[in-house]
Each structure stands twice: as structure tokens, then as C-alpha cells.
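Consider the following input, taken from an annotated entry for Pentalenene oxygenase (Allokutzneria albata).
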Amino acid sequence: MGNQARSTGVAVTGTAPGALPLLGHALTLLRDPLRFIGSLAEHGDLVHVRFGPLRAVVVCDPELAHQVITNERVFDKEGPLWRRAREVEGDGLITTARAGHRRRRRMVQPAFHRAKMPHYATIMSDVLADETTAWQDGEIVPVSAFALRLTSETTARVMFTDSADPEAVAGIRAALPDLVGGVFRRMLSPAPVNLLPTPANRAFVRARKRLQDSVERLIAGYRTAGERDDMMAVLLAAEHDENGTTDDEEMSALVTGLFLAGTETTSSSVSWTMHMLAEHPDVQERLRREAESVLGDRVPAYEDLIHLPYTRAVVTEVLRLYPPAWLLARVTTSRTTLGGHVLAAGMNVIYSPYLVQRRPQQYPDPERFDPGRWLNAASGCPGSFLTFGEGARKCAGDTFALTQLMVVATGLVRRWELRPVPGPRKRPRARAVLHPRRLRLRLDRRGAA
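Applying the prediction step yields:
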């Protein structure tokens, strides 16, 4: 159907079946989010859905998704998804609407300059060594817990050098499960329901308070630690350059957003990378051989990564199949057309990287894990790879995330063989971020007798 839309210039529209009175498609989405979203392309390029009183159109065609993402003047970050996200993060870089984005982007961009990446890569390798030093041959590792420790410690050291309060970092880590699950649930619930004193709502409020207190504690500790050469110093310098003052609320929102992105979304990708390497020993072995031929016995420097094309292809294929932010939304700021169809002002427009990155029109045999498709591959049509977004709102930390995934992948497979643990096939748990359910892997030390 996507081909028809491109050949005629008019998108095919449809309505998702199975809407219930009052609830619409909300119950179906909550029960099996990925199956529901994945089924929508069968009904058109633009598919109408309803979640309770909220009406939306889901964009299933990648070129139309590209138009939505790159035209933030018309398709802005408003609506229930972003309101719920602001309950956690505040008005930060990722969650802010168009009016506040440019200023926040200017503040954050220097922290992700390529000149900073060699230093960050060293920290990533150091943290990986610290977090794996106690591993034993034959050990069974709970992957999600390991990945969360790894990414939270890496993010803390990158942002705060050695002044990061370990209790504050642990507080952020402990708050994440209730926050990430709660944002998705609250997005689909009527506002009055989110105010009820239910166990889930109380857990969300406690987790949000713990997160906010932990971030404030990190910032306060940093400001008493003297001069530093880290990401936080860059942010404070950028804030001073912008208006000569330091806005505590704005800085807290920026730090919270960066910490959550560096911790929660990257831990998802680390988990999926380890899972796919364990499930595909041929891929794991090829990645190991590439790493050893380029690196020998040393840890990877940032400058080495360009010489690891297969490793990059592996992590890119993981990100295609399992984009952390799998469901996103915008709201039209004025009456507009998309794919030849009129959308009223205030329309909720949803797009899913998980959906568009599994379309057979763009990716033959899309369910197959095939890193080779990224070697010497053309870039594809606009909108066909949305894990990091596109346009002015493209992820500022995309190079940082790719660097960490490559450092982790090469560091692990040179010392350990990752093996799956027998059990049911691992399915994603789709909340605000896509995580594997209860993933455990066996570690066999390479070269062990």
C-alpha cells in the first residue's frame, strides 16, 4: 500500500478494526502493543485509531512519517504522550515543544561534539571493565539489570566525572521501572484516572519524586566539587553563554532528560545487542574476529570504530529491529494535508519506528536479523530508519549511543561467549521503552579450559 501512495501521490487511509465502546483501541494496545501497531499497515498508510476519547491517525508509510518528523512547525511535540513524559523529565530537550527546542539544542550540542567522543569512549570501556570484572565462567547473568547498571554508571561518569553521588545514581536506577511503565499506561488513561490513589499511580508518584530528588542531589554535589571537564561543565557553560544565568529548573530538566536517555534507552539497546549476539553465534564470531583483527588485545579507541564496519552493522540492525522509543507522536498545530488527506488542527499523529523499520517494502525478509543488509547498503527512502529520528529533532546523542553499543559489543565478545539460556522465546516488553522480558544469558570465558 505504501507503493500505491507514492505512485499516485495520495495515501491509502483506513480505520483499525475492533474498537470497543468508550475504550476504542486502548485495551487492545495495552494487551499486546506491538501486535496491534504492527497490524495497522494492513489497513492503509494513514490509519485512524481511538484510545478512549483520544482520536489519532497512525502513519504507517515511512515517507509520510519523514514528513511528520521533519516539519515540526506543523507537527509539534504536544498531546498526551509528551504531557506524560514532561511529568517525568520536565521541559527538557527531548520533551519540549518547538518553541523551546532550539535554545535547548544549542545548550546540549557542544556536549556531543565529536571532539568529546574519544574521552567518552574511554569512560565506556572503563565502566565495562568494572562491571564485568567479577563475572565467572559459566555464570548466568540477568541481562537487563546488568545493562542498566552499565549505562547508568557510564552516564554518571560522563556527566559528573568522579563527583557523581553513588546513592543518587542508584536512586535514579531504582526509579526507572515504575516511571517507564507508568508513562505508557498514563498516556492511555483518562486524566482523572491518573489522579486516583491506585497502587500503580502511587508507585509512579514515588518514583518521580525519587528521580527528581536524585537529580537535584547530583547537580548540588557537582556544584560544590569545583572545576570539572565533563558534560555537566559543558551544559553549565552553554547555559551561561545563552543568557548569563543558570536556571535550576531548566538545568534539572536537561540533566534528567540526558540521564534518562543515556540510561534507559541505551540499556534497552545493550540488552537487545547481547540477546541477538547470543542467538546468532555466527554473527558473534564474525564480530569477534573483526574486533581482534583491528584491536588486538587493546580496548577500542573512538578512532578505531570507523574500522569496525561489521560491528556497526550489527548494532544498526539491532536498532532497526528493536528501536528503544518504539511509539511516538506529534500534534498538528494548524490544518494541513498529509499524503493528500486533510488533517484538522489538533489532530494526534502517531508514528512507530518499530512498524516502519519492519516493512518488507524497505527491508526484504524484515523479521530476519541480518547485519549484512547494512554493508555497502544504500540509505533507503526517507523515514525508513527512525530510531534516532530525523531533521531538527534528530537525537543529539546518536553518535554517543552508537559508540557505547560498539564498545560494549567488542569488549564483551573478545572475552566472553554469550549463550542463550534454554526457555521460552524472548518477546519485547513494550512500554515507553522496548525491553526484553526476563532475559538471562550464560557467559563462557573464551580460552577457559
